[in-house]
């Protein structure tokens, strides 16, 4: 009798620990970017640093070419980054979004957010933020901006004009990206 109670207790503890291990995995934020010369990648890494500060959520950080459909479907939030090409989103990023599953709108109600890098001031960066936001809204995502009025539509960096030319992405822009990541992290952690 005593042995069978002990065996039952053992299985109860085992099942509880399995539930704890597999039933309570942290929500994940997917940070996906396109980058030819590394500037948008630097912003993506800053977004990830911001998410990391929150601690309660996982993130996947990768170029769009490596993103799997299941990673999109499993993510609680999707954060996209693109450079500005001739006033538009990089065509690779648009193709990526166009490849998302649409039937039944399986991405509906995930959090969506965006960041860009552009060579110059007001020659496309806001248009590209808005372009990605529009596409995400077609898929039913809930759009969230950055953590300051200067990143209201998402985080942006100027990489090629005046003092910002031929340098690493500057701290003032990386801070916006970090703030975006932190904000999405807090929202996802409390969702
Ligand atoms: C083909 C091409 C077109 C570009 N067109 C624009 C543009 O219209 N407006 C702009 O601000 N920057 C433009 N840029 C500059 C890039 O957006 C900028 O250098 C960006 O930071 C590059 O990001 P990456 O290092 O992640 O590739 C263009 C760059 C290339 C290569």
From TrEMBL:
Gene3D superfamilies: 3.40.50.360. Pfam families: FMN_red (PF03358). Residues 29-181 form the Flavodoxin-like domain. InterPro entries: Flavodoxin/NO_synth, Flavoprotein-like_sf, FMN_Rdtase-like_dom. It comes from the Bacteria. This is Flavodoxin family protein. It comes from Belliella calami.
């Amino acid at each position: 009798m005593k042995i069978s109670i002990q065996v039952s207790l053992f299985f109860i503890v085992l099942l509880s620990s399995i539930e704890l291990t597999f039933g309570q995995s942290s929500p994940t934020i997917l940070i996906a970017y396109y980058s030819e010369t590394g500037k948008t990648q630097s912003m993506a890494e800053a977004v990830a640093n911001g998410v990391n500060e929150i601690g309660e959520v996982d993130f996947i950080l990768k170029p769009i070419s490596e993103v799997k459909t299941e990673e999109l479907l499993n993510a609680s939030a999707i954060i996209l980054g693109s450079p500005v090409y001739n006033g538009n989103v990089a065509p690779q990023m648009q193709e990526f979004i166009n490849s998302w599953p649409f039937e039944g709108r399986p991405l509906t109600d995930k959090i969506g957010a965006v960041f860009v890098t552009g060579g110059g001031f007001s020659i496309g960066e806001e248009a590209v933020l808005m372009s990605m936001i529009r596409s995400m809204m077609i898929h039913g995502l809930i759009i969230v901006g950055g953590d300051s009025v200067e990143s209201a539509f998402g985080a942006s960096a100027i990489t090629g004009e005046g003092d910002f030319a031929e340098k690493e992405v500057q701290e003032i822009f990386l801070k916006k990206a970090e703030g975006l990541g932190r904000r999405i992290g807090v929202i996802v952690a409390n969702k």
